Amino acid sequence: MINIGILGLGTVGTGVVELLENNRKVIKQRLGEEVNVKKILVRDLSKKRTPYADGKLTVQADDILDDEQINIVVEVLGGEEPALSYIKKALQNKKHVVTANKEVISKHGKELFELAEKSGVGLYFEASVGGGIPIIRPMKHCLAANRILRISGILNGTTNYILTQMQEKRRNFEDALREAQRLGYAESDPSDDIKGFDAARKLAILSSIAFNTRITPDKVYVEGIENIELEDIKYAGELGYTVKLVASARKVGKSEVEVLVAPTMLSKNHPLSAVRDVYNAILVEGDAVGEVMFFGQGAGKMPTASAVVADIMDAAREGKRRIYCTCYDELKVIDVGSSTSRFYIRLKAKDKPGVLSKISGAFGRNDISLHMVIQKDVKGDVAEIVTVTHQVHFNNLKKAINEIRDLKDVERVINVIRVEEVSSNGVHGDN
Amino acid sequence: MINIGILGLGTVGTGVVELLENNRKVIKQRLGEEVNVKKILVRDLSKKRTPYADGKLTVQADDILDDEQINIVVEVLGGEEPALSYIKKALQNKKHVVTANKEVISKHGKELFELAEKSGVGLYFEASVGGGIPIIRPMKHCLAANRILRISGILNGTTNYILTQMQEKRRNFEDALREAQRLGYAESDPSDDIKGFDAARKLAILSSIAFNTRITPDKVYVEGIENIELEDIKYAGELGYTVKLVASARKVGKSEVEVLVAPTMLSKNHPLSAVRDVYNAILVEGDAVGEVMFFGQGAGKMPTASAVVADIMDAAREGKRRIYCTCYDELKVIDVGSSTSRFYIRLKAKDKPGVLSKISGAFGRNDISLHMVIQKDVKGDVAEIVTVTHQVHFNNLKKAINEIRDLKDVERVINVIRVEEVSSNGVHGDN
């Protein structure tokens, strides 16, 4: 069993406690041992908390930092102090540290990594950039054979939400900001986000890894989005562009890097231009791999907890256990006939009265409801019929298609193709 | 120094040898020791090879598999045999194995992982799915705290190229296939790709990891794209869809999974619908992280070598050395003034003769050439002018803007925003 201590029980801290509890079984199976939250640092013992925290709260950081049974300290307080001092003490006490703190890592990374190395423990910070999007570990491991030429990304969800609202809803900046605040995407003092400072810290972390050189946030040139007007967004659209707050860094010659955060118009075929709302994306260009992109929710309680808990698992595994086969379940592969989807069907039939009704009848008998039917492209006495169904079972569809094939006025069922939609939020769900 | 042996010197093997040589310095810095290619298995000693392979060739697999100084065996032969037997022997001889072989891993993964665990060595296969796109390690590590609900992806570049050609160039299937063959994207016998078998193997590997259950390719329901006609693509377009060969797997209830490869129409706002040409993308949905997407070149010499060499580095590092700070360079952050970009500028000026020429003069004196100028939105005697520049230095632009601000007929320079284009291949390069 691995004992951990958590510093902070705000949004992310609560997410971490809940995720460890909700996915206790898979985490234990994948890690090979259990993760136990031993103590949690809070400021106020009387505040109402998640029931999973019962009996674990303390107001003394040293209860965690000096506990010899705690192997891993998770820092989710945010802000520079006291987080920095706590992390230092934890590392000095030879505990692995997992943190989501972009401010501490971007400003004090050098000192902290030296401390971790000296103590022979790990310092993990996957959650500090891009929330739950895997980016730090992929850059350090999966792309390690590459010389990185450039990184560019949408690293701040608040500003991306505001720009998306301006573009799609024709809201002006102030209205879009108010909407972001109403939804909890922006703070009451939003300057850290809209002036680009939050993106600059994340870019400092990413470019330090990409170019193997220490880049602190004060070295990043920053322009925010506070001066972007609706008119600019409209012109951009007319010109075929989308305005995004782009954080980018690239190697210049042998010994220089360019590092900036600035509003940028992206052509519609640019991979970052399609990133909407609070989503983040990071494009990395390596000399061998070419361009790879990582996309997902860049913030939020559970996405950030996903990255923190993955780091906890890696810290627990460190030097102890290699990941072998992870197929510990025996799931059954279901017959695809029982799967559901929407389907597009194209067929050729005689262009005469009653044919469409016979075809519709075959669908109806097999419980297939149709979203739309188009009859067109008549050549001689032959019509082409295209339909799209609602969600239906594949088995039912196959039965209907067989009946339709047997209809004497149907020449040929040409094609049957699955159809996927995305729901209104732009990324979730489909069939 | 880590000695490796490579089985096979085809396209990927040559890429691995070249990448290890070209990026020798960064690889050594990041890993902390040198990777030395000791021996390479080939079939024909007389064939002309990369000069980096000189003096290392052998036609005897056992020269590598039985060499006690070789710690890591890299298998890039492809195909089921003799690759499988060689991998087994390497693992039995307690050597780490790195492979790009999707056929062997998808069909014989269980046996090989058990063998690796028994021998206490690692079996790495990042390159077997998605070429250089980080996906195996991110799923095993970064998303380890999640219950995976669904994965869906475009896992075969050949079919995606054909479908993109059909959609964008209105080529029919046969012409698009011939074009793919001419460009080397498709084999002379293309059935493995176009019938969906290649995608099925990759999906078997991904879904085994995602759902912690062994899924072999024969369990995957497969439809290929060989029956898709240009007419279908056209109708799909009219209906607002793009046709893609989608590989998808999802958990159904507690003990079942649905695993299929089939042509699917995706609505234009679906994240996978924008994946063009030979690119691959994998969308993973976890209960905590939500949806994350990984995008990049799914095949090719250097992208695949990028994944293989990353695996070699991880195998070399295994249990030996934690990654601490990797900032071993001291790069200078360049003044953003010397960076270049295209810029959009919007300003308000008096609507009278000579004003535009004065503005253009200020640009010209500072070496700023203009891509386009729009004058519009005249209110009373005021005109709004929008211009987009070619690639220019930011310092020059700032000087020009200052001169323009001082012009007496210019009321206000409202905004200056960077513009990024992507070149015609859809993803590479920009400003």
UniProtKB/TrEMBL annotation, chains A, B:
It comes from the Bacteria. It is an enzyme of class 1 (oxidoreductase). It catalyses: L-homoserine + NADP(+) = L-aspartate 4-semialdehyde + NADPH + H(+). The keyword Ligase does not apply. GO terms for molecular function: homoserine dehydrogenase activity; metal ion binding; NADP binding. GO terms for biological process: methionine biosynthetic process; threonine biosynthetic process. Keywords: Amino-acid biosynthesis, Metal-binding, Methionine biosynthesis, NAD, NADP, Oxidoreductase, Sodium, Threonine biosynthesis. NADP(+) binds at L7, G8, L9, G10, T11, V12, G13, T14. Residues 344-415 form the ACT domain. NADPH binds at K102. Pfam families: ACT (PF01842), Homoserine_dh (PF00742), NAD_binding_3 (PF03447). L-homoserine binds at E187. Pathway: Amino-acid biosynthesis; L-threonine biosynthesis; L-threonine from L-aspartate: step 3/5; Amino-acid biosynthesis; L-methionine biosynthesis via de novo pathway; L-homoserine from L-aspartate: step 3/3. InterPro entries: ACT-like_dom_sf, ACT_dom, Asp/hSer_DH_NAD-bd, HDH, HDH_cat, HDH_CS, NAD(P)-bd_dom_sf. The keyword Amino-acid biosynthesis applies. The active site is at K202 (proton donor). Its cofactor is a metal cation. SUPFAM superfamilies: ACT-like (SSF55021), Glyceraldehyde-3-phosphate dehydrogenase-like, C-terminal domain (SSF55347), NAD(P)-binding Rossmann-fold domains (SSF51735). Its EC number is 1.1.1.3. Belongs to the homoserine dehydrogenase family. This is Homoserine dehydrogenase. It comes from Caldanaerovirga acetigignens.
